[in-house]
Amino acid sequence: MTKNELNKYEEIARQFPQSNLLEGYHHFRRLELTLYFLKKLGGDLLVLDAACGDGIQAERIIDIHRVIGIDLSPTRIKRAKNRVKEGTFMNGNLYNLPFKSNKFDAVVLGEIIEHLHEPKEVLKEINRILRRNGYLIMDIPSRSNIVDMILRFLGKNPMWGLYVDKSHVAFYDMHSIESIFKDSGFKIIDARGGPCIRYDLPLLGMFTWQKKKWAILKIIDMILERIPVIKKYGAIQIFLFRVVK
Questions:
Q1: Which pLDDT tens digit goes with each residue over 19-66?
Q2: pTM for the predicted model, two decimal places
Q3: Which of 98, 145, 160, 190 is deepest in the core (most CB within 10 A)?
Q4: How, if at all, do strands 88-91 and 186-193 pair?
């Protein structure tokens, strides 16, 4: 990793929340993994950044694909428009997307499904706006993670009880993920675990040396992501789905 790359990561890091080191890094690395999948798809794609927030993700997506962002919050849409001048952003509801059918090549939806009371309704709406053989990139907190399994074996509270807020209304394991997406017209094409550090190895947050550079955390994550048990049983699973029509 060159000095220029290190500086780039630090510059991006300053755009993320700094109140919690691991939370800020977690969202940064999650974005990088999303971009990894988008780059693999190739071509000049039209991407919907669903629940786009302040436009941090759209700002990176627009470097490789065309992007439209949608979010429920007018405040966040205003911020996104200020951040990404060349992007298109609008208010909207995931349950009733304001787009014609078969419009998008790909949809990106990050850490949202666990907040939804009716996830199948949202997934079917995403299916509707995706073109044939379109893609959905989505990261989902998984109950099938190794830390939770160890805690349950020891009779302790699962890890997600420590980390999630009250807005999380559902929890998923691999079986339920496969089932709900199949029922909604999607097929898993690829999946990988990560970012790992915040949840899979939370004790790393106790060490002060890592706070100097997010780049150090990324190096650790890249090593962890290649370990088979982490890839399959990481606390966060990032999926590439293809729509089935």
A1: 455 555 666 777 888 888 999 998 889 999 999 988 989 999 999 999
A2: 0.73
A3: 145
A4: unpaired
Instruction: Supply the Cα-derived Rg of the chain in whole angstroms.
Output: 18
**Owner of token pair 């436009």:** 55
Tokens of 93: 């509801």
Contacts of residue 156, defined as CB under 8 A and 6 or more positions apart, other chains included, come to none
State the amino acid at position 191 in one-letter form: A
**CATH number of the structural domain 3-233:** 3.40.50.150
Sheet of 66-71: strand order equals: 88-91, 66-71, 46-50, 104-110, 130-141, 236-243, 186-193
Cα separation values, 4 from 8, 129, 148, 215, Å: 6, 39, 38, 11
DSSP assigned state of 164: -
